[in-house]
Specification:
The complex is a heterodimer.
Chain A: H1 12-18, H2 23-36, H3 44-53, E1 58-63, H4 69-75, H5 82-89, E2 91-95, H6 103-116, E3 121-126, E4 129-130, E5 138-139, E6 142-143, H7 144-152, E7 155-161, H8 162-167, E8 180-181, E9 192-195, H9 202-215, H10 228-231, H11 235-238, H12 242-246, H13 257-261
Parallel strand pairs in A: 1-2, 1-3, 3-7, 7-9
Antiparallel strand pairs in A: 4-8, 5-6
Helix pairs in contact in A: 2-3, 3-9
Chain B: H1 18-35, E1 39-42, H2 52-60, E2 66-70, E3 74-79, E4 85-91, E5 97-104, H3 115-130, H4 135-139
Antiparallel strand pairs in B: 1-5, 2-3, 3-4, 4-5
Helix pairs in contact in B: 1-2
The chains are: A alpha/beta, B alpha+beta.
């Protein structure tokens, strides 16, 4: 008699299938992920094969000084998105906002997940960590700092979700009354991926997870710790007016010859002050 | 001209992406014919001037076959007026375009019934037939046939 795998034993592919996601739907997600990771389309079959065979990774999600917007961006939608389904298909062993358990039971689940998957689990963090006073933000009586350091000890990698975890965000803004710091300011002995945004784009979050599951490694990062695939280019880099910039053809004023001909909108005077925001359009 | 007049400018053709892509399609058709090698062009990764994407789509036109897929959002898979050249557009459940591709192949992979779905279909149909419920009743429940 064939015994059906338990939810914990399922591969990601089996888990998605059990949730009613057809193979075609899965292929669509893989194609979109491949595109957003700036990988060639020929990689789609490899990504699909690796993802569907991947065991559901254990993920511990820690929420510190945050507004829950990061979680909402991934889980709240008028209809089920494939990002949400992928998120549902990971083994989310601890997320105090979402889980039914609370207090000691919740903390027991976190410790159990750490013990069972020591060295292999992922830690996702949203929110900044207050260092000014341990009592500024606590969960089950544990300070954010203590919980982070304890949980990260056995993690394979850490993903800082949202601008607060990545850079301090609003809690870290001047005068920073709680002494808020980012994850990367505290964790120096583990790989930390920053996925900033307020909230971050759900596809970027799951694509980072997908890359980890597919290739067993995290994406290439820029000097801010952000995945280059998503934050490597400015709008200027991909602008259809870019050839005119290279030729030194600029629209200097509204409705001049350059404006009518579609030349670069950065004027020749300000051409050294190009947009610096790096984000995928 | 006043401020509400449309600004009439067009990126010169020689600077756009339409013609290079069409040439790439020609080479991809050669590879398909000579080596059975399919090609996928990810249009989301290419910068297009306003109107260029429409011009590319219009140039390739519509062929004999169009398929709509409903799997976590809709998709339209359309053979262009050039057989072997397919235009694919995937949308998510919110209706947003999440992928737009030109595939140069005999049949896009996503149109084919997939093994995992066939296995599941085999199991489901087998279970349905093994159940007590008469087959004809299940097929036409609204007509009350038994």
């Amino acid at each position: 008699m064939k015994i059906a795998p338990t939810r914990r034993q399922m591969t990601l592919g089996e888990s998605l299938q059990a949730r009613g996601v057809s193979r075609r739907g899965f292929l669509k997600y893989c194609a979109a992920t491949t595109s957003i990771l700036a990988l060639p389309p020929t990689m789609v079959p490899r990504i699909a094969r690796a993802l569907e065979q991947a065991r559901r990774p254990s993920v511990i999600w820690l929420s510190f000084q945050e507004c829950t917007g990061c979680t909402e961006s991934l889980t709240r939608s008028s209809s089920p998105t494939v990002e949400g389904l992928i998120f549902d298909s990971i083994s989310l062993d601890y997320h105090h906002t979402l889980q039914a358990a609370s207090g000691e039971a919740a903390e027991a689940a976190r410790h159990a997940a750490m013990e069972e998957n020591f060295g292999n689990y992922l830690v996702l963090v949203d929110g900044s960590i207050p260092l000014g006073n341990p009592g500024f933000s606590t969960i089950a009586g544990i300070s954010n700092y203590d919980m982070l350091m304890e949980t990260v000890a056995g993690a394979a990698a850490v993903v800082a979700i949202g601008s607060c975890a990545a850079f301090g965000g609003i809690p870290g803004a001047n005068p920073n009354p709680t002494g808020a710091v980012s994850v990367r300011e505290l964790i120096t002995d583990k790989p930390v991926v920053n996925v900033p945004g307020c909230p971050p784009i759900p596809m970027v979050i799951t694509a980072v997870l997908a890359q980890f599951l597919t290739f067993g490694q995290l994406p290439d990062l820029d000097h801010y710790g952000r995945p280059v695939a998503f934050f490597g280019q400015t709008i200027h880099d991909r602008c259809y007016r870019r050839p005119f910039y290279e030729q030194g053809k600029f629209a200097e004023t509204f409705d001049d010859e350059g404006a009518r001909k579609g030349w670069c909108l950065t004027s020749s005077v300000a051409k050294d002050r190009l947009p610096i925001t790096r984000a995928r359009p | 001209m006043n401020s509400v007049d449309p600004i009439d400018f067009l990126i010169p053709h020689e600077r756009g992406n339409v013609e290079p892509i069409l040439h790439e399609v020609v080479h991809a058709l050669d590879r398909l014919l000579e080596h059975e090698e399919p090609t996928v062009i990810d249009l989301a990764r290419l910068p297009f001037a306003p109107g260029e994407l429409d011009r590319l789509e219009g140039y390739l036109g519509t062929g004999e076959l169009t398929a709509d897929l409903d799997a976590l959002g809709t998709s339209r898979i359309r053979e262009t007026a050039y057989p072997g050249v397919w235009w694919l557009e995937h949308r998510n459940t919110e209706g947003e375009v999440v992928g737009r591709y030109i595939e140069i192949t005999r049949t896009p992979e996503i149109l084919m019934s997939q093994d995992a779905d066939i296995f599941a279909a085999r199991a489901r149909l087998g279970d349905d037939l093994a159940a007590d419920e008469p087959v004809i009743e299940k097929q036409n429940p609204k007509e009350g046939r038994t």
